[in-house]
Amino acid sequence: MAPTIRHVAELARVSPSTVSRALASPDLVNVATRQRVRAAADKLGYRPNRAARGLITGRTGNLGMIVPDLSNPFFAAVAKGVQARARERDHAVFIADTDESSDAEADLVLALSKQVDGIVLCSPRMLDADLGQITVQSKLVLLNRRLGDCPSITVDNADGMRQAIAHLVALGHRSIAYVGGPRTSWSNAERARGLREAAASAGIDLIEVGHFRPQFEGGVAAADIVVASGATAVIAYNDVVAIGLLSRLGARGIAVPRDLSVVGCDDIAMSMMSHPALTTVSVPQQ
């Protein structure tokens, strides 16, 4: 027979209500009692009923995570990190993919909000005004986006681009192209800002060839424009775009890095599997 809350209470020498509080709202129970209850639960292999616990705490024990593209290894790695941390806190994670659609982001946030305690919204593509309305209606943590006082986790994208420019300038490049990502991407705006500042400081030409889908096909589509620009190096919005560039450049017989240097961003595992191996700006993923 599966252990019940009463079995845990008997072993820990406390009441069933104390067991419930210790597991559902540990801050309400003193440390010694909490540890005794946890030890008893672990020994018996007891796992609280989520539905029952939810009736007491008003929480589901579930979190949501919304990403723009799960086929991008960067977001897959981030999702694994979120799941690992959530599991440590006995939470489950529901993951949804928007396929780079800002409309889908808003719909998914509203739908998931009814089923979870909070949502990690990763690299949202919504405009600030639309995102601002969503943050009022739902409990959100933004990843790779800043907006007002909404909790967020970001990296210094601009500094990463400065480092990329410094690397290429040290190799002798004076004309560098940038293949941009989505127009509404906060990370893209920050990366472009860092590139412009670094290029101006180094006295080199920065050629922004436009915005492309942040996928392999986007890099393939941008490659011919980069070559026509006369740039001797190119920085891509992300590694997946950079790998698309490598593919098209190879098909044209343009050797990398002999004829054109290529730099990506994110440091996904695939960057080491490309030929040649991709130079990339590392971004924390977990």
Helix-strand blueprint:
Blueprint: H1 5-12, H2 16-24, H3 31-44, H4 50-57, E1 62-67, H5 73-88, E2 92-97, H6 102-113, E3 119-122, H7 128-137, E4 140-143, E5 152-153, H8 157-170, E6 175-180, H9 186-202, E7 205-211, H10 216-229, E8 233-236, H11 239-251, E9 261-266, E10 279-282
Parallel strand pairs: 1-2, 1-3, 3-4, 4-5, 6-7, 6-8, 8-9, 9-10
Mean pLDDT: 91
Fraction in helix: 40-55%
CATH-derived topology of the largest domain: Rossmann fold
What is the CATH architecture assignment of the largest domain?
Answer: 3-Layer(aba) Sandwich
Q: What is the oligomer described by this structure? A: single chain
N-to-C terminal Cα separation, in Å? 39 Å
H and E order? HHHHEHEHEHEEHEHEHEHEE
Count every helix, treating DSSP H or I runs of 4 or more residues as helices: 11
Q: Class by helix and strand content?
A: alpha/beta
Major sheet: size, sense and barrel closure?
5 strands, parallel
Q: Taking Cα atoms only, what radius of gyration do you get, to the nearest Å?
A: 24 Å
Provide an overview of this structure.
- The chain has eleven helices and ten strands.
- It is α/β, with parallel strands linked by helices and 286 residues long.
- The protein has three domains: 53 residues, Orthogonal Bundle (434 Repressor (Amino-terminal Domain)), CATH 1.10.260.40; 92 residues, Rossmann fold (3-Layer(aba) Sandwich); 126 residues, Rossmann fold (3-Layer(aba) Sandwich).
- It has a five-stranded parallel beta sheet with strand order 2-1-3-4-5, sandwiched between helices.
- Helix 1 crosses helix 2, helix 8 runs parallel beside helix 9 and helix 10 crosses helix 11.
- It is elongated, with a radius of gyration of 24 Å.
